[in-house]
Amino acid sequence: VTPSPLVAALRDAAGEPHVLVDADVRAPYEIDWTRRWSGSAAAVVRPRTAGEVSAVLRACAEHGAAVIPQGGNTGLVGASVPRSQEPRPQVVLSAARMTTIGEIDRATLQMRAEAGVTLGALQAAARSAGLDAAVDFAARDSATVGGIAACDAGGIRAVRHGTARMRVAGLEAVMADGSVVCRMSGLLKDNAGYDLPALLVGSEGTLGVITSVLWQLVPRRDARALALVPVGSVSDAVALLVAVRQHLPSLDACELMTDEGLALVLEHIGTTSPVRRAAAYVLVECAARADPLEALAAALDAAGVTDAAIADDTAGRERLWQLRERHTEAIGAAGIPHKLDVGVPLDRLAAFCDAVQAALTDGARPILFGHLGDGNLHVNVLGHDAAEESIDELVLRLAAQHGGTISAEHGVGVAKARWLHLSRTREEIAVMRAIKSALDPECVLNPGALLQPRT
Ligand code: MLT
Ligand code: ZN
Hints:
By secondary structure, the chain is of the alpha+beta class. The protein has 15 helices and 18 strands.
């Protein structure tokens, strides 16, 4: 069969074996993890270098194709797979072959990683050098550095180390016209002009394709202690956070679960709760050079906690962590949920949770969990038609009304682009659109993600 001109150009750009056109081989790249988002690609291309990515983007521009950048395809907002509504042919640009990790600079604690390096591989490389990647979340073995930077992912340790943005000390990206932008000097102080890496972080693949990141590592703190504390309400959970934060400089994670979510996970993995059942639960983890167990116990004591499961060995901690980390999987096994990732200021978090519970009726089953320390809540709703978007709008409006954001760490993606105005002013959106049209005038890169197509 004679390949289409687009496929022939992609083969020239990345090499024939790295352009996938057969439907069954393309299939896993065309549907997202939640099973809510899918579309058809003319091809999946897997370039090896920034130079090849540049050639791919030039080929796509020349043949009028849209480009969907894809890392580990763990995104939850529909931005990593082809659009069902896009009229142009779409090419999935996979980072799967860009997996080189560079040497660590011992003076700066920075390490170069290509876009397709998984978070797990990055963490392992850092660990083996006595250092720490400082970002962590459950999809660590699939999510990749390029996507993590492009979405400014957060995860469970942002309460101490910030989101991915804080880790990006430099970046290489290919722009829509194929030009390669590289700022990899790693200089902490470098204010010679616009901070282009900062612009690309959180741009969700709409301004350029990130091909490498200079990752800022931190010293390793190996001694860990974890407590799972049952609490009477979300407002008690926030009060606990306030209390332990003051006393625990070693605080490394502070997570929230509610009893609905814990019940689902316990059933899914076939185990029983290690603590008494309560309305909500807080996981408090400390990390330090010396064993933080005593400090943790003292802080819980000072906070008036009388009842908690505590673990300071790896197996015990993993047992407790899985109750939180397996929420996504347990919810997915129960159905296709609405997944809303919002951020709400901590002093209004409890009111927001109450408002969500009160607003969701008609069999809708809200499961709230997330990163308490950051006010970042994952509102998952089961028992409601996955295609019915009124529920998404309701939750996002409530987040905005409580002074929050419609997207804390998953990105806006395709899922929430139509509600961007709930979090950003008209003026801000106009600036974003101006940047987008200057850098990608034909809207080749990730169309429909973050900014809705103009009608
Ligand atoms: C999590 O914190 O577990 C993730 O963000 C995944 C999710 O929200 O499902
Ligand atoms: Zn999360």
